Amino acid sequence: MDKIIVPIDFSKYSEYALEAAAILAKQNNAEILALHMLEMSDALLTATDDGQKPKALFFLKLAEQKFEEFLNKDYLEGLKITPIVKHFKVFSEVSEVAEEHNADLIIMGSHGVSGFTEVFVGSNTEKVVRHSKIPVLVIKQKPGNLNFETVVFASDFSDESVSAYIKASKILQDSSKIHLLYVNVSGENFKSTAEMEQQVANFLMKADGNMNQLNNVHYVSDYSIEKGILNFSNLVGADLIMMPTHGRKGLAHFFEGSISEDLANHANLPVMTFKI
User: Fold this and answer.
1) Are residues 179 and 111 in the same domain?
2) What is the pTM of this model?
3) What is the mean pLDDT of the chain?
């Protein structure tokens, strides 16, 4: 991991994300790209009359000064920080900035339980998750050491989820213990034990070329997939939940409806998504 992007909006949640980025940057000797979107109208930025120009410059300088002060944190000392200021607050552009700078990860802060609706439904974090071609880590509280010693990778183990699993494996440290989780619920997606085991076996052969991770696969039954993920994550003391996403098309078939919403709404854990 060489470059980490952190969108900054000056909230305490973006500071949580910045601190998390600092921890991961020190672990990986990575650069942090601190991205701030100026919330200024096109009319103001492109104004030609003498009255509007000074006003636009004033707000630009004010925002840039605030951004500089925000980045003056002790935990950033010794790290390579590259401030990036965009003059439009269009969060779908975060993905474009990530591609332009060959970033490996985007870290964003979220309001957690109380503010999930505004974070993941039609909001900035949801827009970034949907547009991003690289993994997105959502942080909900002040980070600890972020060692991610115990990780839950929740999936339906379909062929299209293989790429997400491979990316997740590359991000995790050798010391991380990864639990592969399949949640079985009643309904049209219900599978027998034999069907689940066969699907996971095919998945592991395509992803790893072997069955070495078979002992780390867990099958649980619950009233809903999100409850199954949360209950299992709490049971094993997980530090991180990982899951695939279809981006603009919505979450993967395994995460239909409000599953991702409920997960981010109720989990205090960091959640990392991978576009498939």
Assistant:
1) no
2) 0.84
3) 82
